[in-house]
Task: structure prediction
Amino acid sequence: MASYSKIRNLAALILVTVMALSYSQAIGQDAGGDIQPAPYQVAWQDLEFGVILHFSTNTFLDREWGDGTASPSTFNPTHFDPDQWMKAISASGAKYVVLVAKHHDGFCLWPTAQTAYSVKSSPWKNGKGDVVGDVARAAHKYGLKFGVYLSPWDRHDPRYKDSAEYDRYYNSELEELAQNYGDLVEFWLDGAGSGGHVYDFKKIIETLRTYQPNTVVFADTGLFEYGDARWVGNEAGIVNYENWNVIDRHGYRRWRPIEADTPLRKAHWFWHPNDETSLKTLHELLDTYDKTVGRGAQFMLGIAPDNRGLLPDGDVARLEELGAALRLRAQSNLASRHAAATPEVAAALDNNVDTFWSAPPASRHATLEINFDQSVTFDHALTMEWLNEGQYVQKYAIEIWSDKEQKWLAIAAGEAIGHKKIDSFAAVTARRVRLNIISSSGSIRIREFQLFDWSDLRVPQPSSVVIEK
Ligand code: FUL
Result:
């Protein structure tokens, strides 16, 4: 017979193990129905697709990561035209722009009062220029929201060696950006290069929030706890796991949706000469869109103006092609051709993301059925969950009714729906289709349930490419 102390030790061991297990289970993503997004996070998620612009001394030196020694005299674009950038960006379907105002090399693209290492010391516009101001104005002119990236890692400024002194410098730079360029949709805090450096992020966010309470703060989960959006974990433009919006960081749970950044030219954030072959194809970009936006994340495409200060023609044409293809795809929703439906069901089939279908209160399982007068053929489904009060759906299937087998057949299945889920499958033909919510941890609300046949998509020629007959 085991002695009392042995049993007590065993009980203590079991308790510690159970505690350790439940703690480790708590770290990571969860459906987190009790955690709601802030209104500015909801608005940002609805933008879905943005671009990040890299244009600095690196552009003139064939570099990706400047070491902080480049002379300001290298920055001298001859045809700087952010309107040209914004025209192409807006044609691509992107809704917001984040400008790298300072990359790791420390060179500032606005005439900051905090350092001479800026456009002020460059020959461009005789030192009177302001890239941040010009880009912000051009973005707003084209209806795009504007945000900034301000690299914490600074390889030029000597104050970087002293954390407290550098924090004061960084905060003063941020005060200028947060006060002088209108509403900032997003503030990018990049963790690259910062290993081992201590920042006062609480103070940094306080500074931002004083002037910009509705800016989405992007950062890797490792950088600090209370960012508003997080890095996807790769630069390939892919969410390669089930995507839940709530993530726990050592007991700190927060609505923190994903932004997936990837450059238009493979593995290059800045422009480089003779690099046209790295331009991604339309097919690759649509695939990335489906693996980011189509998995509930933001798609953040890296765009790089060249050393003239213009987007190269090939990049412009590709952005136009992307926008045309996305518009064509979106216009072909077959679900909107449904037969008579109740107004509640119709709210999920109407291409209007402001209306949604609600399953009966307290239900944790429900189906949303579309009936057609004539059968339709489709190979993609797009589903959106209404997230304002949290993410709840935990398992779903898309099913068609088989007259032959007299039963519902699943053609796609998954766990998270979230902001948007695009499922692809071999083409099927059916007259009855349903979204089967198999389980949900709270109220079930679906903004849209759409069906598409994208197999035979004819992508229109971009306006800039004239084909002679
Ligand atoms: C990374 C940086 O190191 C790259 O240079 C680029 O700016 C990318 C968007 O973020 O962390």
